[in-house]
Design goal:
mainly alpha
Length: 48
C-alpha cells in the first residue's frame, strides 16, 4: 500500500470515529451502533 493511500485511510478512519463520537447514544442506537463499536465501524469504513 502506498503512502498516500495509507494517509487517506487513516484520515477516513479518524473522521469516521470523530463523527460517530459526536453523536448521542440514542442517535447511534438508531443506526444500530453501540458506542463500543465505533472503532470497529470506522475500520470497516476504511476497508471498503
Amino acid at each position: 500500500m502506498n503512502v498516500a493511500r495509507s494517509f487517506n485511510n487513516w484520515r477516513k478512519y479518524r473522521q469516521t470515529v470523530a463523527e460517530l463520537g459526536r453523536m448521542s447514544t440514542r442517535e447511534l442506537h438508531d443506526l444500530g451502533i453501540d458506542r463500543a463499536d465505533i472503532q470497529r465501524v470506522a475500520r470497516a469504513a476504511v476497508s471498503r
